[in-house]
Amino acid sequence: MRIGVVTFPGSLDDRDAQRAVRLAGAEPVALWHGDHDLQGVDAIVLPGGFSYGDYLRCGAIAAVSPIMTEVVSAANSGMPVLGICNGFQILVEAHLLPGGLIRNDHGDFICRDQRLRVENTSTDWTNGFTAGQEITIPLKNGEGGFIADAETIARLEGEGRVVFRYLDVNPNGSIDDIAGITNERGNVVGLMPHPEHATEPGFGPDTPAAMRSGVDGLTFFTSAISALVSR
């Protein structure tokens, strides 16, 4: 199984995402923003960072980079696509997901281990979770507030397309505590927290069992592999 990770100018977490793919049991494939070649991958990850320096709007320039023509086409054909933080912003700017991401309501960059509730386990990236499961994933962003008009929010909520919701604290002012959403088909998922930073013991969030032992993020990547195997 080959999962591509796209690198844009300003990507910070592409290597971490590649490592997460490898830990999950798939082959990571480095993809370059300026190419039109997906190299035959089975799924795609758009990683976190500050693509193109966040000029204009976060993700706005990356959304029209050459590789995104291929990513949009693949996503519309059903390929699993995960957008993490800046990757989520890119998915929104590319109109693969609705809504928008704006400056955190408190005006500050935030970095913390964030508890989430899994709301939707039917997507390609969440089928390994159980409904209502509470997980802890690192969060780091300055413009992570999810917004949308009332009609879009009602549709996302009504169709069960809110995939993750913040617990304990809303870290950025997102409407309805929304931390991540999916498209109608369930193959495209975007979220602000970083699952690739919670995939390996010794490097993840603290848990009651031990410091830095949290690996809840690994399930994102094993879920995608399971979804692809079952097709």
TrEMBL record:
Record's subunit section: Part of the FGAM synthase complex composed of 1 PurL, 1 PurQ and 2 PurS subunits.
Gene that this polypeptide is encoded by: purQ
Function: Part of the phosphoribosylformylglycinamidine synthase complex involved in the purines biosynthetic pathway. Catalyzes the ATP-dependent conversion of formylglycinamide ribonucleotide (FGAR) and glutamine to yield formylglycinamidine ribonucleotide (FGAM) and glutamate. The FGAM synthase complex is composed of three subunits. PurQ produces an ammonia molecule by converting glutamine to glutamate. PurL transfers the ammonia molecule to FGAR to form FGAM in an ATP-dependent manner.
Active site: 85 (nucleophile), 194, 196
Catalytic reactions on record: N(2)-formyl-N(1)-(5-phospho-beta-D-ribosyl)glycinamide + L-glutamine + ATP + H2O = 2-formamido-N(1)-(5-O-phospho-beta-D-ribosyl)acetamidine + L-glutamate + ADP + phosphate + H(+); L-glutamine + H2O = L-glutamate + NH4(+)
EC code(s) of this entry: 6.3.5.3, 3.5.1.2
NCBIfam families on file: FGAM_synth_I (TIGR01737), PRK03619.1 (NF002957)
SMART domains from the UniProt entry: GATase_5 (SM01211)
Domain of life: Bacteria
Entries under InterPro entries matching the protein: Class_I_gatase-like, PRibForGlyAmidine_synth_PurQ
Localization of this protein: Cytoplasm
Protein name: Phosphoribosylformylglycinamidine synthase subunit PurQ
PROSITE patterns per the UniProt record, alphabetical: GATASE_TYPE_1
HAMAP family assigned: PurQ
Keywords: ATP-binding, Cytoplasm, Glutamine amidotransferase, Hydrolase, Ligase, Nucleotide-binding, Purine biosynthesis
Main localization of the protein described in the UniProt heading: cytoplasm
Keyword field contains Nucleotide-binding: yes
Pathway(s) where this gene product acts: Purine metabolism; IMP biosynthesis via de novo pathway; 5-amino-1-(5-phospho-D-ribosyl)imidazole from N(2)-formyl-N(1)-(5-phospho-D-ribosyl)glycinamide: step 1/2
